Structure to design on (355 residues):
């Protein structure tokens, strides 16, 4: 086993929508998710969030429309010449059209921005993919230079959008070389893979020990699907017991994963087991019979005085 | 005469643009859909590259 190193990780900023992570270069139209100041491909300081680009495109086309109305309005006034009623009509008509258009445009700006954003995603999909690939190359470069925490931070950004098993695996492998702490900004569900992975299993165990709130439905499901693989690995039973202990924090999980709890009730630490016991004793009818029986049995055997 | 034509075009242009805004507003994608589009693009890329 390799020795683990203490590290300082920057907190991860979770955006409301994944595309908020993307930034586009005004100089060369390259995309990146890395939070660098300069563009990774042309090195200019011209990276702006994708939404800002969409907003300015929407605004630009609105300005163009207003310009058309303005030019035609001015022409109308010009050709009206000395004819005062006609002049008034041209002036009034032009201003009215401009104000109407402007008001509608203002109201439609949010929708137009989203529409532009959609267009950019569709038209520049290849560029986005290419940008993320380049980001990954950069991460590999940083890894070669020996900066593992930074590599992990980069992969975390890339992996947030590109949810592929290789990128997840690389993150898990790096995390396994760090000394993890309770106060670290860690994540679990985005790292769950489509297949069983020993390092991921070990990582799940660490999370169950350090930040059990991160263990949610998807993780329980992963653990249940690969339970036999977990059992076969070294220390796997301990991991399963830790995950079972994490399930006890909500009665909902007790209801959803009775098999897990049934098999590991006898291995739960005392406080966790007593919590399970209280949850079940409160409304035994709500839980699987076998789980209720097993919980009472363990209670009698280990804790009843 | 030219003034009438210009004003006519101004109103025609403005009303077409305004109408277009309203038509498009109905088909504006939700942020969630855009996020999904992005994930789909990246997923397809993964398949193509392998
Ligand atoms: Zn650039």
């Amino acid at each position: 086993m390799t020795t683990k190193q203490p590290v300082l990780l920057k907190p991860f900023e979770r955006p409301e929508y994944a595309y908020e992570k993307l930034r586009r270069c005004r100089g060369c139209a390259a995309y990146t998710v890395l939070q660098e100041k300069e563009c990774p491909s042309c090195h200019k300081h011209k990276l702006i969030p994708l939404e800002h680009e969409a907003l300015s495109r929407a605004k630009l086309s609105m300005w163009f429309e207003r310009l058309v109305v303005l030019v035609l309005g001015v022409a109308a006034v010009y050709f009206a010449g000395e004819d005062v009623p006609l002049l008034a009509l041209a002036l009034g008509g032009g201003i009215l059209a401009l104000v109407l258009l402007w008001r509608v445009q203002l109201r439609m700006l949010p929708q137009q921005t989203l529409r532009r954003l959609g267009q950019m995603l569709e038209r520049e999909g290849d560029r986005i993919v290419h940008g993320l690939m380049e980001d990954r190359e950069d991460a590999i470069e940083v890894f070669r230079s020996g900066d593992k925490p930074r590599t992990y931070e980069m992969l975390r950004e890339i992996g947030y959008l590109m949810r592929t098993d290789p990128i997840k695996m690389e993150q898990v492998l790096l995390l396994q070389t760090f000394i993890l702490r309770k106060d670290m900004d860690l994540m679990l569900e985005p790292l769950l893979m489509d297949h069983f992975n020993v390092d991921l299993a070990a990582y799940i165990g660490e999370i169950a020990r350090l930040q059990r709130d991160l263990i949610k439905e998807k993780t329980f499901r992963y653990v249940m699907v690969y339970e036999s693989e977990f059992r076969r690995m070294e220390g796997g039973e301990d991991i399963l017991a830790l995950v079972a202990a994490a399930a006890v924090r909500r009665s909902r999980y007790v209801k959803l994963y009775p098999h897990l709890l049934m098999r590991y009730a006898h291995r739960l630490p005392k406080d966790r087991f007593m919590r399970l016991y209280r949850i079940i004793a409160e409304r035994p009818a709500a839980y699987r019979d076998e789980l209720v029986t097993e919980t009472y049995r363990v209670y009698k055997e280990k804790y009843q005085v | 005469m030219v003034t009438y034509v210009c004003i006519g075009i101004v109103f025609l242009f403005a009303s077409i643009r305004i109408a277009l805004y309203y038509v498009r507003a109905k088909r504006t994608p939700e942020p969630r859909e855009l996020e999904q589009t992005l994930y789909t693009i990246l997923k397809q890329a993964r398949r193509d590259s392998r």
Observations:
- Residues A 25, 27-28, 30, 39, 41-42, 44, 46 surround zinc ion (CB under 6 Å).
- Residues 2-49 of chain B form one domain.
- DSSP finds two helices and no strands in chain B.
- The longest helix of chain B spans residues 2-26.
